[in-house]
Write a structure and sequence with these properties.
2 copies of one chain form a homodimer. By secondary structure, chain A is an all-alpha fold. Chain A has one domain: Phosphate transport system protein phou homolog 2, domain 2 (Methane Monooxygenase Hydroxylase, Chain G, domain 1, Up-down Bundle), CATH 1.20.58.220. Helix content of chain A is 81%, strand content 0%. The first copy, chain A, contains 7 helices and no strands. In chain A, helix 1 packs antiparallel against helix 2, helix 2 crosses helix 4 and helix 5 runs parallel beside helix 7. At the A-B interface, helix 3, helix 4, helix 6 and helix 7 of A face helix 3, helix 4, helix 6 and helix 7 of B.
Protein backbone atom coordinates (compact mmCIF):
# COMPACT_ATOMS: atom_id res chain seq x y z
CA UNK A 1 0.00 0.00 0.00
CA UNK A 2 1.38 3.41 -0.94
CA UNK A 3 2.39 5.52 2.07
CA UNK A 4 0.21 8.47 1.13
CA UNK A 5 -3.02 6.46 1.53
CA UNK A 6 -2.15 4.74 4.83
CA UNK A 7 -3.63 7.39 7.14
CA UNK A 8 -6.75 7.59 5.04
CA UNK A 9 -7.15 3.82 5.08
CA UNK A 10 -6.72 3.71 8.85
CA UNK A 11 -9.38 6.43 9.22
CA UNK A 12 -11.71 4.45 7.03
CA UNK A 13 -10.98 1.32 9.03
CA UNK A 14 -11.80 3.14 12.28
CA UNK A 15 -15.05 4.31 10.75
CA UNK A 16 -15.84 0.76 9.68
CA UNK A 17 -15.18 -0.50 13.20
CA UNK A 18 -17.51 2.11 14.67
CA UNK A 19 -20.26 1.08 12.27
CA UNK A 20 -19.76 -2.60 13.16
CA UNK A 21 -20.00 -1.72 16.87
CA UNK A 22 -23.15 0.23 16.14
CA UNK A 23 -24.63 -2.71 14.26
CA UNK A 24 -23.63 -5.03 17.10
CA UNK A 25 -25.35 -2.69 19.55
CA UNK A 26 -28.55 -2.72 17.51
CA UNK A 27 -28.54 -6.51 17.22
CA UNK A 28 -27.89 -6.88 20.94
CA UNK A 29 -30.71 -4.45 21.77
CA UNK A 30 -33.13 -6.52 19.75
CA UNK A 31 -32.12 -9.74 21.48
CA UNK A 32 -32.47 -8.05 24.85
CA UNK A 33 -35.92 -6.69 23.94
CA UNK A 34 -37.11 -10.08 22.66
CA UNK A 35 -36.07 -11.86 25.86
CA UNK A 36 -37.40 -9.01 28.02
CA UNK A 37 -40.79 -9.41 26.35
CA UNK A 38 -40.70 -13.09 27.26
CA UNK A 39 -39.92 -12.46 30.92
CA UNK A 40 -42.28 -9.52 31.40
CA UNK A 41 -44.95 -11.04 29.10
CA UNK A 42 -45.06 -7.70 27.30
CA UNK A 43 -46.70 -7.99 23.89
CA UNK A 44 -45.94 -4.35 23.05
CA UNK A 45 -42.21 -5.00 23.19
CA UNK A 46 -42.48 -8.22 21.24
CA UNK A 47 -44.53 -6.52 18.50
CA UNK A 48 -41.87 -3.84 18.35
CA UNK A 49 -39.18 -6.47 17.73
CA UNK A 50 -41.36 -8.16 15.11
CA UNK A 51 -42.02 -4.82 13.38
CA UNK A 52 -38.70 -5.18 11.61
CA UNK A 53 -35.01 -4.58 11.64
CA UNK A 54 -34.72 -1.99 8.90
CA UNK A 55 -31.84 -0.09 10.59
CA UNK A 56 -29.85 -3.32 10.91
CA UNK A 57 -30.49 -4.26 7.30
CA UNK A 58 -29.47 -0.79 6.13
CA UNK A 59 -26.27 -0.93 8.18
CA UNK A 60 -25.61 -4.40 6.81
CA UNK A 61 -25.63 -3.07 3.24
CA UNK A 62 -23.63 0.02 4.17
CA UNK A 63 -20.93 -1.99 5.97
CA UNK A 64 -20.67 -4.47 3.12
CA UNK A 65 -20.22 -1.60 0.66
CA UNK A 66 -17.60 0.00 2.88
CA UNK A 67 -15.64 -3.24 3.01
CA UNK A 68 -15.66 -3.71 -0.75
CA UNK A 69 -14.70 -0.08 -1.28
CA UNK A 70 -11.78 -0.46 1.13
CA UNK A 71 -10.62 -3.65 -0.59
CA UNK A 72 -10.89 -2.16 -4.07
CA UNK A 73 -9.42 1.28 -3.33
CA UNK A 74 -6.66 0.47 -0.87
CA UNK A 75 -5.80 -3.14 -1.66
CA UNK A 76 -4.78 -3.70 1.94
CA UNK A 77 -2.31 -6.41 2.92
CA UNK A 78 -1.72 -8.80 5.81
CA UNK A 79 -3.64 -8.02 8.97
CA UNK A 80 -5.46 -5.11 7.32
CA UNK A 81 -6.68 -7.34 4.50
CA UNK A 82 -7.85 -9.93 7.03
CA UNK A 83 -9.51 -7.18 9.09
CA UNK A 84 -11.66 -6.13 6.12
CA UNK A 85 -12.59 -9.66 5.05
CA UNK A 86 -13.35 -10.42 8.71
CA UNK A 87 -15.60 -7.36 8.77
CA UNK A 88 -17.60 -8.79 5.86
CA UNK A 89 -18.05 -12.03 7.78
CA UNK A 90 -18.80 -10.32 11.10
CA UNK A 91 -21.35 -8.14 9.32
CA UNK A 92 -23.13 -11.30 8.16
CA UNK A 93 -23.03 -12.74 11.67
CA UNK A 94 -24.57 -9.60 13.14
CA UNK A 95 -27.36 -9.58 10.58
CA UNK A 96 -28.15 -13.18 11.55
CA UNK A 97 -28.26 -12.18 15.20
CA UNK A 98 -30.89 -9.62 14.21
CA UNK A 99 -32.81 -12.38 12.41
CA UNK A 100 -32.57 -14.60 15.48
CA UNK A 101 -34.05 -11.83 17.63
CA UNK A 102 -37.07 -11.98 15.30
CA UNK A 103 -37.20 -15.77 15.61
CA UNK A 104 -37.17 -15.39 19.39
CA UNK A 105 -39.95 -12.79 19.20
CA UNK A 106 -42.04 -15.15 17.05
CA UNK A 107 -41.67 -17.91 19.63
CA UNK A 108 -42.46 -15.43 22.43
CA UNK A 109 -45.67 -14.44 20.64
CA UNK A 110 -46.80 -18.06 20.59
CA UNK A 111 -45.58 -18.67 24.15
CA UNK A 112 -47.57 -15.76 25.58
CA UNK A 113 -50.82 -17.37 24.40
CA UNK A 114 -50.36 -19.98 27.15
CA UNK A 115 -50.00 -19.90 30.92
CA UNK A 116 -46.35 -19.67 32.01
CA UNK A 117 -44.63 -23.05 32.07
CA UNK A 118 -42.32 -22.10 34.91
CA UNK A 119 -40.40 -19.19 36.36
CA UNK A 120 -37.79 -18.28 33.78
CA UNK A 121 -34.25 -18.22 35.12
CA UNK A 122 -31.95 -20.11 32.76
CA UNK A 123 -33.21 -18.52 29.55
CA UNK A 124 -32.62 -14.90 30.70
CA UNK A 125 -29.24 -16.15 31.95
CA UNK A 126 -28.49 -17.61 28.51
CA UNK A 127 -29.52 -14.31 26.93
CA UNK A 128 -27.13 -12.35 29.17
CA UNK A 129 -24.25 -14.69 28.34
CA UNK A 130 -24.98 -14.54 24.60
CA UNK A 131 -25.16 -10.73 24.69
CA UNK A 132 -21.91 -10.49 26.65
CA UNK A 133 -20.20 -12.86 24.23
CA UNK A 134 -21.35 -10.78 21.29
CA UNK A 135 -20.20 -7.51 22.84
CA UNK A 136 -16.84 -8.95 23.92
CA UNK A 137 -16.25 -10.51 20.51
CA UNK A 138 -16.82 -7.16 18.81
CA UNK A 139 -14.59 -5.39 21.32
CA UNK A 140 -11.94 -8.02 20.65
CA UNK A 141 -12.26 -7.28 16.92
CA UNK A 142 -11.92 -3.54 17.41
CA UNK A 143 -8.90 -3.94 19.73
CA UNK A 144 -7.42 -6.91 17.85
CA UNK A 145 -7.32 -8.62 21.24
CA UNK A 146 -6.89 -12.39 20.89
CA UNK A 147 -7.04 -13.03 24.65
CA UNK A 148 -10.45 -11.42 24.79
CA UNK A 149 -11.51 -13.43 21.74
CA UNK A 150 -10.34 -16.62 23.42
CA UNK A 151 -12.41 -15.74 26.51
CA UNK A 152 -15.48 -15.53 24.25
CA UNK A 153 -14.77 -19.01 22.92
CA UNK A 154 -14.52 -20.32 26.48
CA UNK A 155 -17.92 -18.87 27.39
CA UNK A 156 -19.60 -20.88 24.67
CA UNK A 157 -19.36 -24.07 26.73
CA UNK A 158 -21.39 -22.45 29.51
CA UNK A 159 -24.08 -21.52 27.01
CA UNK A 160 -24.16 -25.05 25.59
CA UNK A 161 -24.42 -26.48 29.11
CA UNK A 162 -27.37 -24.22 29.90
CA UNK A 163 -29.07 -25.18 26.64
CA UNK A 164 -28.84 -28.87 27.56
CA UNK A 165 -30.09 -28.14 31.09
CA UNK A 166 -33.05 -26.12 29.76
CA UNK A 167 -33.89 -28.92 27.33
CA UNK A 168 -33.93 -31.61 30.02
CA UNK A 169 -35.93 -29.53 32.46
CA UNK A 170 -38.56 -28.58 29.89
CA UNK A 171 -38.81 -32.16 28.68
CA UNK A 172 -39.75 -33.13 32.24
CA UNK A 173 -42.51 -30.50 32.28
CA UNK A 174 -43.80 -31.75 28.94
CA UNK A 175 -43.89 -35.36 30.11
CA UNK A 176 -45.71 -34.43 33.32
CA UNK A 177 -48.34 -32.15 31.83
CA UNK A 178 -49.44 -32.27 28.17
CA UNK A 179 -50.88 -28.74 28.43
CA UNK A 180 -47.29 -27.55 28.76
CA UNK A 181 -46.04 -29.26 25.61
CA UNK A 182 -46.66 -26.35 23.24
CA UNK A 183 -45.29 -23.51 25.38
CA UNK A 184 -42.36 -25.65 26.56
CA UNK A 185 -41.50 -26.37 22.93
CA UNK A 186 -41.28 -22.65 22.28
CA UNK A 187 -38.98 -22.18 25.26
CA UNK A 188 -36.75 -24.93 23.88
CA UNK A 189 -36.67 -23.16 20.52
CA UNK A 190 -35.84 -19.85 22.22
CA UNK A 191 -32.95 -21.46 24.09
CA UNK A 192 -31.65 -22.82 20.76
CA UNK A 193 -31.89 -19.38 19.16
CA UNK A 194 -29.85 -17.98 22.06
CA UNK A 195 -27.31 -20.75 21.63
CA UNK A 196 -27.00 -19.77 17.96
CA UNK A 197 -26.40 -16.16 18.95
CA UNK A 198 -23.55 -17.48 21.05
CA UNK A 199 -22.35 -19.38 17.97
CA UNK A 200 -22.29 -16.15 15.98
CA UNK A 201 -20.26 -14.49 18.75
CA UNK A 202 -17.93 -17.50 18.56
CA UNK A 203 -17.58 -16.99 14.80
CA UNK A 204 -16.61 -13.37 15.39
CA UNK A 205 -14.07 -14.40 18.02
CA UNK A 206 -12.56 -16.98 15.67
CA UNK A 207 -12.31 -14.33 12.96
CA UNK A 208 -10.44 -12.07 15.40
CA UNK A 209 -7.91 -14.78 16.19
CA UNK A 210 -7.40 -15.53 12.50
CA UNK A 211 -7.15 -11.84 11.70
CA UNK A 212 -4.44 -11.22 14.28
CA UNK A 213 -2.46 -14.45 14.24
CA UNK A 214 -2.73 -15.90 10.73
CA UNK A 215 0.41 -16.17 8.70
CA UNK A 216 0.65 -13.60 6.04
CA UNK A 217 -0.80 -14.87 2.80
CA UNK A 218 1.75 -13.15 0.59
CA UNK A 219 4.86 -15.01 -0.51
CA UNK A 220 7.26 -12.17 0.25
CA UNK A 221 6.09 -11.70 3.79
CA UNK A 222 7.55 -10.74 7.09
CA UNK A 223 4.75 -8.85 8.74
CA UNK A 224 2.29 -11.66 9.22
CA UNK A 225 1.43 -11.78 12.87
CA UNK A 226 0.67 -8.41 14.35
CA UNK A 227 0.34 -8.34 18.11
CA UNK A 228 -2.95 -7.49 19.76
CA UNK B 1 -5.09 -5.87 -12.53
CA UNK B 2 -2.08 -6.06 -14.87
CA UNK B 3 -2.74 -8.05 -18.05
CA UNK B 4 0.08 -10.49 -17.51
CA UNK B 5 -1.48 -11.93 -14.36
CA UNK B 6 -5.04 -12.24 -15.67
CA UNK B 7 -4.78 -15.79 -17.05
CA UNK B 8 -3.06 -16.98 -13.93
CA UNK B 9 -5.70 -15.40 -11.73
CA UNK B 10 -8.48 -16.98 -13.77
CA UNK B 11 -6.79 -20.37 -13.45
CA UNK B 12 -6.55 -19.89 -9.72
CA UNK B 13 -10.19 -18.83 -9.60
CA UNK B 14 -11.20 -21.98 -11.50
CA UNK B 15 -9.21 -24.06 -9.04
CA UNK B 16 -10.92 -22.28 -6.15
CA UNK B 17 -14.33 -22.99 -7.65
CA UNK B 18 -13.49 -26.69 -8.01
CA UNK B 19 -12.45 -26.86 -4.38
CA UNK B 20 -15.67 -25.13 -3.29
CA UNK B 21 -17.70 -27.64 -5.33
CA UNK B 22 -15.73 -30.44 -3.73
CA UNK B 23 -16.44 -29.05 -0.26
CA UNK B 24 -20.10 -28.64 -1.16
CA UNK B 25 -20.18 -32.28 -2.30
CA UNK B 26 -18.66 -33.44 0.98
CA UNK B 27 -21.11 -31.39 3.05
CA UNK B 28 -24.05 -32.65 0.99
CA UNK B 29 -22.89 -36.27 1.38
CA UNK B 30 -22.82 -35.88 5.13
CA UNK B 31 -26.34 -34.45 5.22
CA UNK B 32 -27.56 -37.27 3.00
CA UNK B 33 -25.88 -39.89 5.21
CA UNK B 34 -27.31 -38.37 8.40
CA UNK B 35 -30.87 -38.40 7.04
CA UNK B 36 -30.36 -41.86 5.50
CA UNK B 37 -29.38 -43.17 8.92
CA UNK B 38 -32.62 -41.71 10.31
CA UNK B 39 -34.80 -43.36 7.67
CA UNK B 40 -33.03 -46.73 7.64
CA UNK B 41 -32.41 -46.65 11.42
CA UNK B 42 -28.78 -47.49 10.66
CA UNK B 43 -26.51 -46.75 13.62
CA UNK B 44 -23.37 -47.61 11.62
CA UNK B 45 -24.01 -44.73 9.21
CA UNK B 46 -24.87 -42.33 11.99
CA UNK B 47 -21.69 -43.20 13.89
CA UNK B 48 -19.75 -42.61 10.70
CA UNK B 49 -21.21 -39.10 10.40
CA UNK B 50 -20.49 -38.44 14.08
CA UNK B 51 -16.91 -39.69 13.68
CA UNK B 52 -15.94 -36.29 12.33
CA UNK B 53 -15.61 -34.03 9.37
CA UNK B 54 -11.86 -33.71 9.14
CA UNK B 55 -11.80 -33.51 5.31
CA UNK B 56 -14.35 -30.67 5.37
CA UNK B 57 -12.43 -28.79 8.04
CA UNK B 58 -9.17 -29.22 6.11
CA UNK B 59 -10.80 -27.97 2.90
CA UNK B 60 -12.27 -25.05 4.86
CA UNK B 61 -8.80 -23.90 5.89
CA UNK B 62 -7.34 -24.55 2.44
CA UNK B 63 -10.08 -22.57 0.67
CA UNK B 64 -9.78 -19.68 3.12
CA UNK B 65 -6.04 -19.56 2.50
CA UNK B 66 -6.55 -19.66 -1.26
CA UNK B 67 -8.96 -16.72 -1.05
CA UNK B 68 -6.60 -14.58 0.99
CA UNK B 69 -3.71 -15.47 -1.30
CA UNK B 70 -5.75 -14.47 -4.36
CA UNK B 71 -6.78 -11.19 -2.72
CA UNK B 72 -3.25 -10.33 -1.65
CA UNK B 73 -1.41 -11.41 -4.79
CA UNK B 74 -3.79 -10.34 -7.54
CA UNK B 75 -5.77 -7.52 -5.93
CA UNK B 76 -8.79 -8.40 -8.07
CA UNK B 77 -11.42 -5.80 -8.93
CA UNK B 78 -15.16 -5.67 -9.52
CA UNK B 79 -16.84 -9.01 -10.03
CA UNK B 80 -13.58 -10.90 -9.44
CA UNK B 81 -13.12 -9.20 -6.08
CA UNK B 82 -16.69 -10.01 -5.13
CA UNK B 83 -16.20 -13.59 -6.34
CA UNK B 84 -13.30 -14.09 -3.93
CA UNK B 85 -14.98 -12.44 -0.95
CA UNK B 86 -18.11 -14.47 -1.74
CA UNK B 87 -15.97 -17.60 -1.73
CA UNK B 88 -14.83 -16.79 1.83
CA UNK B 89 -18.46 -16.47 2.87
CA UNK B 90 -19.62 -19.55 0.95
CA UNK B 91 -16.77 -21.51 2.51
CA UNK B 92 -18.12 -20.58 5.95
CA UNK B 93 -21.63 -21.58 4.93
CA UNK B 94 -20.45 -24.97 3.73
CA UNK B 95 -18.54 -25.63 6.92
CA UNK B 96 -21.73 -24.87 8.88
CA UNK B 97 -23.65 -27.33 6.71
CA UNK B 98 -21.09 -29.94 7.75
CA UNK B 99 -21.69 -28.98 11.39
CA UNK B 100 -25.44 -29.26 10.89
CA UNK B 101 -25.00 -32.79 9.51
CA UNK B 102 -23.39 -33.62 12.86
CA UNK B 103 -26.25 -31.97 14.74
CA UNK B 104 -28.70 -34.09 12.72
CA UNK B 105 -26.68 -37.22 13.47
CA UNK B 106 -26.74 -36.40 17.19
CA UNK B 107 -30.54 -36.09 17.11
CA UNK B 108 -30.77 -39.31 15.07
CA UNK B 109 -28.74 -41.14 17.71
CA UNK B 110 -31.22 -40.09 20.39
CA UNK B 111 -34.20 -40.75 18.12
CA UNK B 112 -33.14 -44.34 17.39
CA UNK B 113 -33.36 -45.20 21.09
CA UNK B 114 -37.14 -44.98 20.76
CA UNK B 115 -39.78 -46.69 18.66
CA UNK B 116 -40.49 -44.82 15.42
CA UNK B 117 -42.93 -41.95 15.89
CA UNK B 118 -44.33 -42.28 12.40
CA UNK B 119 -43.38 -43.12 8.85
CA UNK B 120 -40.96 -40.44 7.75
CA UNK B 121 -41.94 -38.68 4.54
CA UNK B 122 -41.62 -34.92 4.98
CA UNK B 123 -38.19 -34.96 6.63
CA UNK B 124 -36.50 -36.93 3.81
CA UNK B 125 -38.34 -34.60 1.43
CA UNK B 126 -36.93 -31.58 3.28
CA UNK B 127 -33.47 -33.14 3.09
CA UNK B 128 -33.75 -33.59 -0.69
CA UNK B 129 -34.85 -29.99 -1.15
CA UNK B 130 -32.06 -28.66 1.06
CA UNK B 131 -29.46 -30.74 -0.79
CA UNK B 132 -30.76 -29.60 -4.17
CA UNK B 133 -30.74 -25.97 -3.03
CA UNK B 134 -27.15 -26.31 -1.87
CA UNK B 135 -26.01 -27.94 -5.11
CA UNK B 136 -27.86 -25.42 -7.29
CA UNK B 137 -26.53 -22.48 -5.27
CA UNK B 138 -22.95 -23.68 -5.77
CA UNK B 139 -23.57 -24.30 -9.48
CA UNK B 140 -24.99 -20.78 -9.70
CA UNK B 141 -21.80 -19.48 -8.07
CA UNK B 142 -19.54 -21.35 -10.45
CA UNK B 143 -21.55 -20.25 -13.51
CA UNK B 144 -22.31 -16.76 -12.17
CA UNK B 145 -25.93 -17.57 -12.99
CA UNK B 146 -28.33 -15.21 -11.20
CA UNK B 147 -31.47 -16.91 -12.57
CA UNK B 148 -30.35 -20.17 -11.00
CA UNK B 149 -29.56 -18.34 -7.76
CA UNK B 150 -33.02 -16.79 -7.77
CA UNK B 151 -34.56 -20.26 -8.22
CA UNK B 152 -32.73 -21.36 -5.05
CA UNK B 153 -34.23 -18.43 -3.13
CA UNK B 154 -37.69 -19.43 -4.36
CA UNK B 155 -37.26 -22.99 -3.11
CA UNK B 156 -36.67 -21.77 0.43
CA UNK B 157 -40.38 -21.07 0.89
CA UNK B 158 -41.19 -24.71 0.19
CA UNK B 159 -38.70 -25.77 2.83
CA UNK B 160 -40.16 -23.34 5.37
CA UNK B 161 -43.65 -24.60 4.61
CA UNK B 162 -42.58 -28.19 5.18
CA UNK B 163 -40.88 -27.25 8.44
CA UNK B 164 -44.14 -25.71 9.73
CA UNK B 165 -46.11 -28.74 8.57
CA UNK B 166 -43.68 -31.14 10.28
CA UNK B 167 -43.89 -29.09 13.47
CA UNK B 168 -47.71 -29.15 13.58
CA UNK B 169 -47.95 -32.83 12.79
CA UNK B 170 -45.38 -33.84 15.40
CA UNK B 171 -47.03 -31.60 17.99
CA UNK B 172 -50.24 -33.59 17.45
CA UNK B 173 -48.35 -36.84 18.07
CA UNK B 174 -46.81 -35.41 21.24
CA UNK B 175 -50.18 -34.28 22.57
CA UNK B 176 -51.78 -37.66 21.86
CA UNK B 177 -49.06 -39.87 23.28
CA UNK B 178 -46.50 -38.71 25.88
CA UNK B 179 -44.20 -41.61 25.00
CA UNK B 180 -43.67 -39.87 21.66
CA UNK B 181 -42.63 -36.52 23.15
CA UNK B 182 -38.89 -37.22 23.24
CA UNK B 183 -38.47 -38.76 19.78
CA UNK B 184 -40.88 -36.25 18.21
CA UNK B 185 -38.79 -33.43 19.70
CA UNK B 186 -35.73 -34.81 17.97
CA UNK B 187 -37.59 -34.96 14.66
CA UNK B 188 -38.57 -31.32 15.13
CA UNK B 189 -34.93 -30.42 15.78
CA UNK B 190 -33.85 -32.38 12.69
CA UNK B 191 -36.38 -30.50 10.55
CA UNK B 192 -34.98 -27.21 11.89
CA UNK B 193 -31.42 -28.28 11.09
CA UNK B 194 -32.55 -29.05 7.53
CA UNK B 195 -34.24 -25.66 7.32
CA UNK B 196 -30.95 -24.06 8.36
CA UNK B 197 -29.13 -25.97 5.62
CA UNK B 198 -31.63 -24.36 3.24
CA UNK B 199 -30.78 -21.01 4.83
CA UNK B 200 -27.10 -21.56 4.09
CA UNK B 201 -27.96 -22.39 0.47
CA UNK B 202 -29.98 -19.17 0.43
CA UNK B 203 -26.96 -17.25 1.71
CA UNK B 204 -24.86 -18.68 -1.11
CA UNK B 205 -27.52 -17.75 -3.68
CA UNK B 206 -27.68 -14.20 -2.30
CA UNK B 207 -23.90 -13.96 -2.55
CA UNK B 208 -24.10 -15.03 -6.19
CA UNK B 209 -26.62 -12.31 -7.00
CA UNK B 210 -24.53 -9.70 -5.21
CA UNK B 211 -21.37 -10.95 -6.89
CA UNK B 212 -22.85 -10.69 -10.39
CA UNK B 213 -25.12 -7.68 -10.14
CA UNK B 214 -23.64 -5.36 -7.51
CA UNK B 215 -22.48 -1.98 -8.69
CA UNK B 216 -18.76 -1.73 -8.92
CA UNK B 217 -17.34 -0.40 -5.69
CA UNK B 218 -14.59 1.62 -7.33
CA UNK B 219 -15.17 5.26 -8.13
CA UNK B 220 -13.76 5.08 -11.64
CA UNK B 221 -15.87 2.19 -12.70
CA UNK B 222 -17.64 0.97 -15.78
CA UNK B 223 -17.38 -2.78 -15.52
CA UNK B 224 -19.67 -3.36 -12.57
CA UNK B 225 -22.35 -5.76 -13.68
CA UNK B 226 -21.04 -8.74 -15.58
CA UNK B 227 -23.70 -10.94 -17.18
CA UNK B 228 -24.18 -14.50 -16.03
Amino acid sequence: MADRVVPHFQDELEHLKRRLLEMGGLAEDRVRAAVESLVSRDTVIVDHVLAGDTPINQLHIEIDNRCFTLLALYQPMAVDLRAIVSAVKINTDLERVGDLAINIAEAVTRYLRHAPVKELIDIPHMARIAQTMLRDALDAYVRRDTAMAQAVLDQDDELDGLKTQVFRELLTYMLQDPSKIEPALDLILISRHLERIGDHATNVAEDVIFMVLAKDVRHHSGEGADGP
